[in-house]
TrEMBL record:
<feature type="region of interest" description="Disordered">
    <location>
        <begin position="81"/>
        <end position="107"/>
    </location>
</feature>
<feature type="compositionally biased region" description="Basic and acidic residues">
    <location>
        <begin position="81"/>
        <end position="99"/>
    </location>
</feature>
<protein>
    <submittedName>
        <fullName>PRC-barrel domain containing protein</fullName>
    </submittedName>
</protein>
């Protein structure tokens, strides 16, 4: 999108139906990447923010806190901030298995795929 033109983002939507790969625009309507992950506390129905995979490739992951997200639409997310205002995503907290409320361990294939993806996307 060039300066002065707004993208056609479609109708407003809830975070629950926001799709991975949806375009993300900064406050100047410049496309900065795509939605990689929606962060939410679904039992509490609380939107926490987005992990944005920036473009051009190889890109990197940035975290947009819920307060930095202005609008969610069918074909795009509009941020209230510029790309430079976003930060690296928070590290997930891991708990030991066997404890109450712990996160289940990754399956071996998931762990290998995650490591490969991390290597590809951090260079």
């Amino acid at each position: 999108m060039g300066a002065g033109t707004d993208p056609d983002l479609g109708r407003p939507i809830a975070y629950l139906v926001l799709a991975e790969g949806t375009a993300v625009y900064d406050r100047h309507a410049e496309c900065i990447g795509v939605v990689d992950q929606v962060l939410a506390d679904e039992p509490a129905d609380l939107f926490l923010g987005l992990i944005v995979h920036t473009t051009p490739l190889p890109g990197r992951h940035l975290y947009a806190h819920a307060d930095q997200v202005a609008e969610l639409h069918e074909r795009g997310v509009l941020l209230a901030v510029e790309r430079d205002d976003l930060h690296p995503p928070p590290e997930p907290r891991r708990q030991r298995s066997g404890r109450e409320g712990s996160v289940p361990a990754e399956r071996p294939l998931e762990a290998r795929l995650r490591r490969v993806w991390d290597r590809i996307t951090t260079r």
